[in-house]
Specification:
The complex is a heterodimer of chains A (315) and B (259). With 315 residues, chain A is mostly helical. Chain A has one domain: Orthogonal Bundle (MetI-like fold). Chain A is built from twelve helices and no strands. Chain A has helices spanning 2-13, 18-54, 66-102, 105-119, 123-137, 139-149, 166-190, 194-202, 207-236, 239-244, 264-271, 278-307. Chain B is an alpha/beta fold and 259 residues long. The radius of gyration of chain B is 18 Å and the shape is globular. In chain B, 36% of the residues lie in helices and 25% in strands. Chain B has helices spanning 43-49, 80-86, 102-113, 119-132, 136-139, 152-165, 182-195, 208-214, 238-243, 248-254; strands spanning 5-14, 17-27, 32-36, 60-68, 71-72, 87-90, 170-174, 200-204, 217-223, 230-237. Chain B has a domain at 5-95 and 171-254: 3-Layer(aba) Sandwich (Rossmann fold), CATH 3.40.50. Chain B has a ten-stranded mixed beta sheet, sandwiched between helices. The chains are: A mainly alpha (315), B alpha/beta (259). At the A-B interface, helix 8 and helix 9 of A face helix 2, helix 3 and helix 6 of B. Chain A: Belongs to the binding-protein-dependent transport system permease family. CysTW subfamily.
Chain lengths: 315, 259
């Protein structure tokens, strides 16, 4: 901030250079544009969703009004995304550690490319794979889980015969977000200062202890931000979920049965072509809720990262 | 504590490149041994070979012997992790763990070795180590604050406290004052004079006045030319090296005629 002040002070004395002025204008414009876009999206959602807020409950699709329509979707969205993150985040940390600290250099480079490549695969491909390969393949494990861990509500069953369950959806989402989460975390681990790694090794730390003392603390904020980026993707993922998940509504933690809550994004994609009038406004209202959720997720992530800055080594 | 190290015909290689040739020296206990020489002469590489830190570079290897306490540090079956527990190191730039408090930084090495340490014992060692590093009075009221909030000189003394908390036999210092201002440098030099009562200290320095001030023995490393290995020209008591060195190269370096 003090730099800008100083710059302005000098500008008064120094001749103004047109190219500098113009470029400054362009960058300012670009900065303002992003705020305008964000505000525009929020305004669009609010205005378009408004009729569904004021419409009488019986005009809302389903029964019981707007809140009862959206709540199961919110639940399904959060369940699928959080589950995907719980699966993907630890794996991503392990993969990033292997690439940065264990793999021989050639292999590490190759794996790095593969991870970046996977991040670029369109989500529809993952959807098709989930539908044709993964869903049938989960039937066996789902039955096993139901038989031996059936007392856990998550595996209460009865197992779905198609395998197009919340469990499968979460797995597909986990695979989808794994590359981006890994890429962010790997980048942070690569930048762990050599200084701190050497400090711990010089104390007689093993490699695992060095990773716990130097690498993980240094990368912790990136683990959080990478995870939130992945969570954001999972929350908004549409096509893969629409293809894989056989949704029947309802709120349940039962992951392997055929009765699954839908997700907001997939529900919009599936219902939109058939909808008109207040039904469309209702779908947009659910979109507004999704927008709010991703905003809150990102704000929480920021807060968590900022709380740690004292100890982050950024100074 | 404070052990003697006998180095015999030590060659250090990076891949097929020989970085240091045939160094033999005895490092005396309870004394400061300074290693001086022009940049790129292999003195830092040699220092890092003494606690096997140079092995972090994948292609690095050594030939020869480094014997401490009748044990060859490079004997097959010798674990570098164990070596480093006995031969501690302080680096050029102060490197406290940024995510840890002052207290946790000092306790870090301690906690590696004994997981089940009582809090009172840890408290005791932390205080003792910080006192040993002449830092206790300055930080005793803010032990829970991050170590990165200290000044450069305080951070370096914190790193020394961290190194001595695990009670090593030998302390290696790789240009420990080159990132510090003169007052902090003075504090660290004073500390070295105290520490040598209990430890064997080896210090690499670019500052010849510093070598003259703090060390009991001085070794001069030199390099014949680019691509040639570095070698130990001579090592002797510090006053001798600085007044009547045996080799002309030493005299020329010390009098500032090259390097």
């Amino acid at each position: 901030m003090s730099n800008t002040g100083q710059g302005a002070a000098t500008a008064r004395r120094v001749r103004k250079r047109p190219a500098d002025q113009a470029f400054r204008g362009i960058t300012t414009g670009a900065g303002v544009l992003i705020l305008v876009v964000l505000a525009g999206v929020a305004a669009f959602l609010l205005i378009e969703a408004w009729p569904s807020f004021v419409a009488p409950a019986e005009e809302i699709p389903g029964e019981g009004g707007l809140v009862l329509y959206i709540w199961p979707l919110v639940f399904g969205t959060l369940l699928a995304s959080v589950l995907a993150l719980v699966i993907a985040a630890p794996l991503a940390v392990l993969i990033a550690l292997f690439i940065t600290h264990y793999a021989p250099r050639k292999l590490a480079q190759f794996l790095g490319y593969v991870v970046d490549l996977l991040a670029a695969v369109p989500s529809i491909i993952y959807g098709l794979w989930g539908f044709t390969v993964l869903a049938p393949a989960t039937r066996g494990p789902a039955e096993w889980l139901h038989e031996y861990l059936g007392f856990v509500p998550l595996f209460a069953g009865p197992p779905s015969t198609t395998g197009r369950t919340m469990f499968t959806t979460a797995l597909v989402l986990a695979v989808m977000i794994l590359p981006i989460v890994t890429a962010v975390i790997r980048e942070a681990f690569l930048q762990t200062p050599k200084l701190h790694e050497e400090a711990s090794l010089a104390l007689g730390a093993t490699r695992l202890e060095m990773i716990r003392m130097a690498v993980l603390p240094f990368g912790s904020s990136s683990i959080i931000s990478g995870s939130m980026l992945g969570l954001g993707r999972a929350l908004g993922e549409t096509m893969a979920v629409a293809i894989v998940l056989s949704a029947s509504g309802g709120v349940t933690f039962n992951l392997i049965s055929s009765g699954n809550p839908a997700t907001i994004a997939a529900n919009i994609a599936l219902e939109f072509p058939e909808s008109s009038g207040v039904a469309i406004d209702t779908l947009i209202a659910s979109g507004l809720v999704l927008f709010a959720i991703t905003l809150v997720v990102n704000m929480i992530a920021r807060a968590v990262i900022n709380r740690r800055t004292d100890f982050s080594g950024a100074s | 504590m404070a052990k003697r190290i006998d180095v015999k015909d030590l060659d250090i290689y990076y891949g097929s490149f020989r970085a240091v040739r045939s160094v033999s020296m005895t490092i005396q206990p309870r004394a400061v041994t300074a290693l001086i020489g022009p940049s790129g002469c292999g003195k830092s590489t040699y220092l890092r070979a003494l606690n096997r830190m140079h092995e972090l570079i994948p292609s690095a290897r050594v030939e020869g012997k480094v014997v401490m306490d009748d044990q060859d540090l490079y004997a097959p079956g010798m674990d570098p992790v164990d070596v480093r527990k006995h031969v501690g190191m302080v680096f050029q730039r102060p490197n406290p763990f940024p995510t840890m408090s002052i207290y946790d930084n000092v306790a870090a090495g301690l906690r590696l070795n004994n997981k089940r340490l009582r809090k009172s014992e840890t408290d005791e060692v932390v205080e003792e180590s910080l006192r040993g590093a002449n830092l206790w009075e300055e930080v005793k009221d803010r032990l829970r604050k991050p170590g990165s909030g200290l000044s450069g000189g305080q951070q370096q003394r914190l790193c020394i406290a961290r190194a001595i908390a695990v009670r090593p036999d030998v302390l290696l210092m790789d240009e420990p004052c080159s990132a510090l201002d003169p007052i902090s440098t003075h504090a660290v030099e004073d500390l070295m004079a105290q520490l040598k009562e209990n430890y064997t200290i080896v210090i690499v320095t670019h500052n010849m006045q510093q070598a003259a001030r703090v060390s009991n023995y001085t070794g001069f490393f030199n390099i014949a030319g680019t691509g040639q290995p570095g070698e130990l020209v001579e090592i002797d008591e510090t006053p001798t090296i600085f007044s009547t060195p045996t080799h002309t190269a030493t005299e020329e370096y010390i009098s500032g005629r090259f390097g």
